[in-house]
Design a protein that fits this description.
The protein is of the alpha/beta class. The protein contains 24 helices and 30 strands. The strands form 6 sheets. Strands 18, 19, 22, 23, 25, 28 and 30 form a 7-stranded antiparallel β-sheet that branches.
């Protein structure tokens, strides 16, 4: 199990991670062997002179002369809109807010665009009304593939698809369009471009990287930065409709051991430079106003506390004059630090601490660190100057905002056309046995549940953090892949039929089967292997093949995956990545004209090597033993065809994989998890199948139907004495998942009301959930999602969870449950302690 290996590695590294006092020197932390950078080895870059021109510096100097220490500290703290109100700014002189994943106006991550505009204006007005220096806020948001947070905005393909396009000019134009749509809704700053170089495709953020090879990042970083910001000028701020960028995540977030998110890069300094520095020099040269430090570490030392990388290198040979912001509560992962208090990060070179939900105690503790000298006044002034310099350039001191509120710019015809162009350019043709292009007048069957699902095509970081829970109605500006195909075929006099399972009455001329990964983001996206596990698409392809129907597979994914059986069962196979909201771009390439000639050729080539087996072993061009199924740079076209023979269907992995986030799914306990029952006698017994019980037993279990036959289980607590029903397995570390606001989620139905207290078991803790069960209507399936962070508040230690779910009571109670897993917080979670108040 991958996480068990990572835990062992962490234990081995504990001598390097011994706790340091709160005010420990960052230099002291980072001098351990293998984690200290040598600036003389690094290439040179430099922020443009216009970033720190004389007029800007004079303005900042005068402003700082009027600032109190409280106001200066406030500039270094950033809060999330889900945890701060405009009224708070009257008391706390914070310098920045952000809208993190799944955050939205009024707690609604699907709030309309006008609500986003109103929220920005309310915060800005509150900042202007506070006493003292009245420094405006800078408001950041994760617009990572278009303005992906706001319903009705343009959602471009994720970076993995854009990397396949190999088109820097396209990237620049996407940056311009994204900046305009963000500015329309009132934000000043996006956390991008993402310059990660993913080297292990099991990493759940692989799709945020353009390529496994830094050549693409080097080519894209400058154009994207200039697209977002425009060129910095000495005579004024960014032009209206442009926003500040943030190159992220510095450094080697794509190089962690076994692809573990927020993990550790174990490699040499030269590899850091040759591979993972990638596009950062180009972004700095282009004038990027901020850099976001990575959660991850290097040889056991977290970057957020590594002075040699954040200060000696970034401010030395890389010549960066903007400010450095940390990631979501990342400072709390440093030795001697908590989310509430961390001098070490600022001393190492972090200028602004992203403290989404802990900003109040962090502000107070940082102020105390400065007063006590643990953070020097000189270091504080340095951080504040960098932040204010960037604010001046970003234009937040400017009163007029001519594009703000012009909602006609969201998903404008020009932006939709650009997104459709990006889809066309990103498609990679892996196989074509002559079935493509499809004659426009053909009878076309479109199959697969993903065909008419814009949310699945858009992937993670779309409206919600994980991209889950979206329907086509949430994308009023969008077009699904099915809708695009239907439009193209019927316009030429053909016919198109949608059938999710591929069933048909009249035999079609061709079938297009659209399938792939479900949406995910960080944490949830980490996998143990690259095996594409769902069996329904393969079964559909084989049924169609047996019926003599030519098949075209359109595969949606955030990474290359082992799909050899699906490729063998297809006459053509297209890697469509995560194309976003303009599904018509797929039809533009697949559907030809009335004579069957191409209307558009394939353009994309692989920027990630396609695996020959499912093991997930890192597979990158230039590495020893490089042996892919389809090599980096591969991509067929209509003008340049090629033959693909039968591929091996030996995956190289055991199909029974372990799971860190799925525990009971489709009526089975996912390895290594199993059900245990414990009654008044204190005896544990396996409960993964029907259990023969007697009336004296404290709890009985039997399978029941929910989403499918026997997909759930019913627990009957008899009241004969204390009894537990719980899932148990090998210990896993869920600390990162709590930081990301994930929740333990389960479907349940009350079949017999609780006659006494019922506790939710999690790890070694128990939390009273009686009120939640009592309030639920009987005989009705519902979903409960309990935030992990709430359980931490109940004293649960998340670093070694061997019981991810359980119920305990000594009273009579009957409840059915199914689909027990970790799930993202889509503003639909509960804290049991709050619910009971």
């Amino acid at each position: 199990m991958r996480y068990a290996l990572s835990t062992a590695a962490l234990l081995a590294a504990l001598p390097m991670l011994a706790l340091a006092p709160v005010g420990a020197s960052a230099q002291d932390l980072a001098v351990r062997p293998g984690a200290t950078a040598h600036p003389n080895m690094w290439p040179r870059a430099a922020s443009p002179d216009a970033m720190s021109d004389a007029e800007t510096e004079a303005f900042v100097t005068e402003l700082m002369s009027r600032m109190t220490v409280e106001e200066k500290v406030g500039q270094t703290i950033q809060a999330d809109i889900g945890s701060i109100t405009p009224a708070d700014l009257a008391t706390y002189p914070l310098g920045s807010i952000l809208a993190g994943g799944s955050s939205g106006p009024g707690g609604n991550d699907k709030a309309p665009a006008q609500a986003w505009v109103d929220l920005a204006r309310e915060f800005r007005a509150a900042a202007a009304a506070r006493p003292g220096a009245r420094i405006p806020l800078i408001y950041g948001i994760d617009a990572v593939h278009g303005h992906n947070n706001v319903p009705g905005a343009t959602v471009f393909p994720h970076n993995i698809g854009l990397g396949a396009a190999r088109d820097p000019d396209l990237i620049h134009r996407i940056g311009v369009a994204t900046a305009l749509e963000v500015a329309v809704t009132g934000a000043d700053w996006t956390f991008g471009p993402t310059l990660a170089v993913p080297r292990d495709d099991r990493w759940g953020r692989s799709y945020e990287g353009y390529s496994e090879d830094p050549e693409v990042q080097r080519a894209y970083a400058g154009p994207m930065t200039l697209g977002l910001q425009g060129e910095l000028r000495a005579d004024g701020p960014l032009a209206p409709g442009r926003i500040a960028g943030s190159a992220k995540h510095y450094l080697a977030d794509g190089g962690t051991f076994e692809g573990e998110d927020q993990g550790d890069f174990r490699g040499s300094e030269q590899e850091l430079i040759d591979v993972h520095l990638g596009g950062y020099p180009a972004a700095i040269d282009a004038g990027v106003l901020s850099v976001m430090a990575s959660f991850s570490g290097w040889n056991g030392v977290k970057h957020t506390g590594n002075h040699s990388l954040l200060t000696e290198v970034l401010r030395g040979p890389l010549g960066f004059d903007g400010f450095v912001v940390s990631d979501w509560n990342a400072h709390g992962q440093l030795p001697g630090c908590t989310n509430d208090s961390c001098a070490l990060a600022i001393n190492a070179g972090i200028d602004m601490l992203m403290a989404p939900d802990t900003w109040k105690p962090l502000y107070e503790s940082t102020l105390e660190h400065v007063r006590a000298g643990r953070i020097s006044e000189a270091r504080l002034d340095e951080a504040v100057r960098r932040i204010l310099r960037a604010k001046v350039k970003a234009g937040v001191f400017r009163e007029e905002r001519p594009v703000e509120g012009d909602l006609s710019q969201l998903a404008s015809p020009a932006h939709r056309a650009l997104a459709r162009e990006a889809v066309r350019e990103s498609l990679v043709l892996l196989k074509n046995d002559g079935v493509l292009p499809i004659r426009a007048g053909a009878r076309v069957l479109v199959a697969g549940t993903a065909a008419d699902d814009i949310g699945q095509a858009a992937g993670g970081w779309t409206l919600a953090w994980q991209g889950t829970g979206n329907t086509n109605a949430d994308f009023p500006q969008g077009q699904s892949i099915w809708a695009g195909i239907e439009e193209a075929v019927e316009a030429a006099g053909g016919s198109a039929t949608l059938s999710a399972d591929g069933a048909f009455t009249d035999k079609p001329d061709v079938a297009i089967v659209v399938f792939g990964e479900m949406p995910y983001a960080e944490f949830q996206g980490d996998v143990d292997t690259l095996d594409f596990l769902p069996t329904e698409p393969l079964e559909t392809l084989r049924r169609l093949k047996a019926a003599g129907v030519p098949t075209v597979s359109v595969f949606l994914s955030g990474r290359p995956m082992w799909t050899n059986p699906e490729i063998n069962a297809s006459d053509a196979f297209v890697a469509a990545w995560l194309p976003g909201t303009e599904g018509g771009g797929v039809a533009d390439v697949l559907i030809g004209d009335a004579e069957g000639q191409p209307r558009n050729d394939f353009h994309g080539t692989l920027s990630f090597s396609w695996p020959k087996d499912a093991t997930g072993t890192p597979l990158n061009r230039g590495e020893p033993g490089y042996d892919p199924q389809f090599a980096y740079g591969y991509g067929l076209t209509y003008a340049r065809p090629g033959e693909v023979g039968a591929l091996s269907e030996e995956s190289g992995v055991d199909s029974s994989t372990s799971s860190i986030d799925h525990y009971f799914v489709a009526g089975r306990y996912v390895a290594p998890w199993g059900l245990m029952l414990r009654d008044a006698g204190g005896q544990n017994k396996p409960g993964t199948v029907k259990v023969a019980t007697s009336p004296r037993d404290g709890v009985r279990v039997r399978p029941i139907d929910d989403l499918a036959q026997e997909s759930g289980q019913q627990f009957t607590f008899t009241g004969a004495g204390p009894a537990d029903a719980y899932i148990e397995g090998v210990p896993i570390d869920l600390s990162r998942q709590a930081n990301g606001e994930l929740a333990i989620s389960f479907r349940y139905r009350i079949d017999g009301a609780p006659q006494g207290e019922v506790d939710l078991m999690f790890g070694r803790g128990r939390t009273d959930v009686t009120d939640l069960f009592e309030a639920a209507p009987p005989n009705e399936w519902r979903t409960m999602k309990v935030r992990l962070s709430c359980l931490v508040g109940e004293g649960v230690n998340l670093s070694g969870i061997d019981v991810p779910f359980g119920l305990s009571t000594d009273a009579a109670f009957t409840v059915s449950v199914s689909e027990i897993r970790l799930a993202p917080n889509n503003n639909d979670t509960v804290c049991p302690t709050e619910a009971g108040q």
